Predict the structure.
Amino acid sequence: MAVRDPIALLMKEHEEALTRLQRLKKDAIDLRKKGYTEKTFRSLLKAVEYVDEEVRVHNKHEEDALFPVVERYVDGPTSVLREDHARMAKIYKKLNYSIKALRENHDDSTSRLELCDSAEEIVQLMVNHIHKENQILFPMIQRFCTKDEIREIAKKLV
C-alpha cells in the first residue's frame, strides 16, 4: 500500500501515541497513589507494549526515511530528535527492569515507584518529542522539501 502523505501518516501515529501515553501516565499515577492492583498493572503493561512495538517502528521510520531528507538541508533538529530516540530506549530499559521486578514481587514498593518514575519520564519525553516534530520538523519539511523528496520519504515508509 502506497503512502500518499507521509507527514499526515506520521502525525496520525503521533495522535495514537498521545492517547496511549495518557493511559500510561494515568496508570503510573494510579499505581503510585493507590498501590499495586492487577487491573492497573495490566493496563500499564498494554501501554508499555505499545511503546515497545509501535513507537520503536515509528522512530525507525523517522530515522531511515525522514531524517536523511531533512539532513540534506539542516541537521540540527534531527540530531536533537535522534538524541530523544536514544533516551527513550534507555528509559524503556529501566521501565522493563522495574516491570520484571514488580511481576516477581507485587509488594515491592521500590520497584513500583521506580516503574512509576520511568513511566512518567518516558511520557514527558515522548510528549515533548512529538510536539517538536509536529510543530517544528513537519512544517519545515512541508515548506522546504520538494514533491520528489516527499515521494522518496513515502516510499521508504512502506
User: Anything to note?
Assistant: The chain is about 85% helix and 0% strand.
